Amino acid sequence: MRIPRRVDMAPDEIMEGTMVTTVHRGPCEEIAPTHHAVTGWTAEHSREMAGPPGEIHLDDPQTVPELLSRICSRSGPRRAVETRLAELSR
Question: What is the structure's pLDDT at 42?
């Protein structure tokens, strides 16, 4: 694998809160139900996601039939998320 010498990066602000995570094991094509589990847990616990869930692939989907990925999303109490997102959008 070739690693680039220079990568453009920029900092981003994130909201304080709880990180909701789970692990997906299986084909990449079947990862959607795992994402739904994260969003479902968040709603069931009266929390709100502070952005879309992210994926951290622990395997290379090009080389393994069973993908191992961590699905994660920041969440917080509904009111706190609304307030923080409004602050960031100013």
Answer: 86
